[in-house]
């Protein structure tokens, strides 16, 4: 009788552990999906800022050429 009671208690604990792990895994998957969305957003933002910086550098380079050409003495 004691052995059956011990097996019943262990079964209940095991079932509770399985349910807990399933709930935790569901939360983990949801957080992983949110993290993937944020990761994609940050990569897009990084690409956008990189393109903006490259454009700004090109504008500054052209402005430098303009100022360099305008400062040369006329011959």
Count of distinct strands: 0
Approximately how much helix is present in the residues?
A: over 70%
Tell me the overall shape.
Answer: rod-shaped
Structural class: mainly alpha
User: Order of SSEs, N→C?
Assistant: H
User: What's the mean pLDDT score?
Assistant: 91
Major sheet: none
Low-confidence segments, given as residue ranges, are none
Continuous helix count: 1
What is the CA-CA span between the terminal residues?
113 Å
Q: What is the C-alpha radius of gyration, as a whole number of Å?
A: 32 Å
- Report strand %: under 5%
As an assembly, this protein is: single chain
Helix-strand layout with pairing:
Blueprint: H1 2-71
Structure description:
This protein has 75 residues and is mainly alpha-helical. Helix content is 93%, strand content 0%. The protein contains one helix and no strands. It has one helix at 2-71. The longest helix has 70 residues, at 2-71. The protein is rod-shaped and about 105 Å long. The model has no long low-confidence stretch (mean pLDDT 91).
Concise account of the structure shown:
This protein is mainly alpha-helical and 75 residues long. It has 1 helix and no strands.
